[in-house]
Input
Amino acid sequence: MVEASEVVFVIAAVGGALLAGLRFWRKQNPPLWLAALHGLLAAAGLALLATAVVTAQAEEESLIALALFVAAALGGFALIAVHLRKKLLPGWLIVVHAAVAAVAIFVF
Output
């Protein structure tokens, strides 16, 4: 189950890089449907990882990664809230969200 969550998180990370690229390159928000797809993939990875941690099928590093992914998810929720208000996504929040998620992937 941990391996499946890693795959899903990597796919979500590629999507997140695309979203960030669109935001910084175009200087406008990416499509909301693409941001929602990114969030759904990340949520699926989070659910898989949480299941593995709770059922003791994961190592200690996975618990640390889980905590970091939860923190990244909170940043993602904040980004979606800004997006829904039709305001430009703050670059600093995108960078922090991505950095926390990247650290979580490397902790894995």
Q: What stands out?
A: The chain has one domain: 2-107. The first helix runs from residue 2 to 26.
